Amino acid sequence: MEIPSRIVKQSGRLRPAPNLLDHAATCASFSWESAAAGLAGLPGGGLNMACEAVERHLAEGRGDKVALRWLGKSGQRSEFSYAELSAHCHRFANALGQLGVQPGERVFLLLGRLPELCFALLGGLMARCVVSPLFSAFGPEPIATRCELGDARVLVTTPELYRRKVRGLRARLPGLRHVILVGAADPELLSDPGVQGWSELVDTASADHAIGPTDPEDMALLHFTSGTTGRPKGAVHVHGAVLAHSVTGRYALDLHADDVFWCTADPGWITGTSYGVLAPLCNGVTSVVVEAEFDAQTWYGVLESEQVSVWYTAPTAIRMMMKLGLEALQGRDLSALRFMASVGEPLNPEAVVWGLRAFGLPFHDNWWQTETGGIMIANYAAMDIKPGSMGKPLPGITAAIVRRQQGGGIELIEQSDIDGELALKTPWPSMLRGYLNEEERYRKCFVDGWYLSGDLARHDAEGYYWFVGRADDVIKSAGHLIGPFEVESALMEHPAVAEVGVIGKPDPTLGELVKAFVVLKPGFEPSEALMRELLGHGRSRLGAAVAPKEIAFRSNLPRTRSGKIMRRLLKARELGLPEGDLSTLESDEQK
Ligand code: WT7
Q: Which of 6, 54, 198, 518 has its CA 20 to 30 A from that of 241?
């Protein structure tokens, strides 16, 4: 495939006219303070995310417009107007009140992409609770860890997920007082302590409810993310972040009021919350929610039947579609599609160009993180694309490439085309306000008024940013961020395992796949059967999305003198790359 160095846009020809036409001029005149004037605010003052996403449209006469269009796994299709969505959310908020749940308490969601996920997310925010969506493909271990760290008071889930993953954890989660099950549950489950059915509790609740006073700095969302070491980190986001959701939806995704928008991400990861729910609703569009997992034909079917105009998806899915070839698209009427964006992992230049061939449109890569709360760097609709680049910082966002210095400071690298760490000037509205109960870890992300992302990147002379890699050992598999420590800990529970080191191994479709190197305890021998058993153990503890896909046995693992497993070295050896600086290496099988 021939990759042009530049895909030129004739912005005057784009319809509708892009929201962000002149990047330089908008950046120069933009301020978050003046952008905030575009928010509705609560009637009595204050700011609540759910009010911006839902209530304001009722107040401004758009209550009848379709907010959500839900496509179920078995072909169901339902629509909810902004007014209907509002009623469902208020019922959930009232139900929380009936249970005695207080503002600030944590409501966890462990659900597939069901309408109730949106109702509980927004209704929880209306009740001024802190909402923490979890990925429904997590196994019991990641669920328990996050509920413990986040002090879950309420969990909304389905009978099936409750039975398979949560029931056995109840003893570990004494603070979890209420479990609300969406869908028909057998009476046996409903007899567990604090378990109730959504239809009995929420559907029968009154929709008459008013959002209480909410400060823009009140905690709204808790999204867990992973680092190289230690337990997952709960990134704290506040109601004021909604300003960034609203503005980035308009600028980076080019949302216009009559768009039909589809974000394919799951709200268990922040993309699905910020851009599957909040940003599209703040911009008053119709947001399509698809319950089914990825399947190229199903997805093409959604694009066609719903006449999706703006589509936000991810590189792994694009690569899977590329594998199927252009024939799979034949005969589809995708004429409504006008803007396509991608996020979460490096988007290969081939994929950008494949978009042009397959859909007549390039994919627009953009960059952000759980910590940034919203899109920071993007290829805008009106901007020329350099395939392989993440684009330019949004208005209101100052990015830089920096180098950490010995003494703890940083040095800005002004010169272009030099690799360094990607940093963002603080603050911006959706910046994380903390890692829950981990002040020290939070503090370490900031130096001299800059937030350090942990990503390596560079910028070119025209101000385009290019992703280079991660500065740490976290793994990106199918766009999901996986902490090696969490995987290692789960494998260590197995009686045969003495030591484990986990790395991300490059994979042409998934980006990286999780690979574990295992040292067995005395008395255990490597075998096919044991390998399968360990793979199975990983899946049942962690869930398929996080579990290792490959396991290799070793007699020893490289460690530093302080005893840390050198994942970097495991990876270099796996890939046949130079081993780098080995001065800290202590024990090693190959020496
Ligand atoms: C990490 C953040 C994407 C927001 C939700 C997931 C990687 C993200 C890109 C991109 C290359 C990317 C980075 C980043 N990443 N976007 N366009 N090109 N890498 O957030 O799970 O916190 O992951 O995803 O490494 O730090 P997350």
A: 198
Q: Which residues contact 395 (CB under 8 A, 6 or more apart)?
A: 20, 23, 26, 27, 30, 247, 251
Is residue 491 domain-shared with residue 448, that is, in the same domain?
A: no
Best of 313, 451, 453, 467 for a ligand 1 pocket test (most atoms within 8 Å of beta carbon): 467
Give tens-digit pLDDT for 195-210: 999 999 999 999 999 9
The CA distance from 119 to 526, in Å, is 49
**CA 340 → CA 251, 357, 509, distances in Å?**
13, 13, 19
Q: Of 355, 380, 375, which is closest to residue 275 (Cα–Cα)?
A: 375
From 423, 455, 487, give the residue that closes a domain. Answer: 455
Which of 319, 369, 482 has the most ligand 1 atoms within 8 A of CB, as the residue to mutate?
369
Give yes or no: residues 441 and 525 share one domain: no
Q: What is the pLDDT of residue 587?
A: 62
Name which of 73, 150, 80 is nearest 113 in CA terms.
73
Residue 554 counted as domain residue = yes
Expressed as residue numbers, the domain containing 531 is 475-575
pLDDT digits (tens, 9 = 90+) for 472-491: 999 999 999 999 999 999 99
What is the whole-number distance in angstroms between the Cα of residue 345 and the centre of ligand 1?
Answer: 5
Phi then psi for residue 501, to 5 deg, are -130, 135
Query: Is 582 domain-assigned?
Result: no
Q: Which of 426, 455, 484 is the last residue of a domain?
A: 455
What mean pLDDT is reported for the chain? Answer: 96
Query: How many structural domains is the chain composed of?
Result: 2
Residues with CB under 6 A from ligand 1: 225, 269-271, 343-347, 365-370, 390, 453, 455, 467, 470, 476, 481
Nearest CA to ligand 1 atom 3: 344
- Whole-angstrom distance, CA of residue 164 vs CA of residue 123: 26
User: What is the pTM (predicted TM-score) of this model?
Assistant: 0.96
Q: How far is CA 437 from CA 232, 374, 493, 518, in A?
A: 12, 22, 26, 32
Quick check: is 465 in a domain? Answer: no
